[in-house]
Write the structure tokens for this entry.
Amino acid sequence: EVQLVESGGGLVQPGRSLRLSCAASGFTFDDYAMHWVRQAPGKGLEWVSGISWNSGSIGYADSVKGRFTISRDNAKNSLYLQMNSLRAEDTALYYCAKSFYGDYVPPFDYWGQGTLVTVSS
Amino acid sequence: SYELTQPPSVSVSPGQTARITCSGDALPKQYAYWYQQKPGQAPVLVIYKDSERPSGIPERFSGSSSGTTVTLTISGVQAEDEADYYCQSADSSGTHWVFGGGTKLTVL
């Protein structure tokens, strides 16, 4: 059974940093691309970032480019999102999602339950 | 930045057909994907590559594409289909993935 478990969320002040993690199990992690998708409270889905199976292709939404960094450790079956210079508008539930393919293209066929990030002073 | 446009809400009675549209300039060149999200739950993929249905998704879910508009059709809607539905696709560069604003399907 595919499982994606996010962690690392919490309350953080504007301008500070936070690192999210996603522990994957139930599939061959290094065969598939992975993504982060966020959802602000009461709002829609927003793709944040994606990374191919071998980290050779990486992409970011314009809203986070230059502030967030995605990475993966295939030996540890883990996905990460380093978030710097956080803003109030980054407040959201952050989902880890598995791609159907090795390249960082949709669809996203499995999702975690999310970790909540709240940016507030 | 690229946008996909969905109607905010669609309402149907049980047993009827629901159609949810998604419009975007790059849709003639890029595949579309559809996700269902129920309250308090993570999204679930229901359609990929415009019209393909993942295993485990009921046959009443189908997708189609015509020009700059893609459509998710739910035939014989059931109460359990009440949810938010999001389309997803790429911008013209094919490197940025965008979601539509979401459509709340209400089963009357």
Summary: The mean pLDDT of chain B is 95. The first strand of chain B starts at residue 9 and ends at 12.
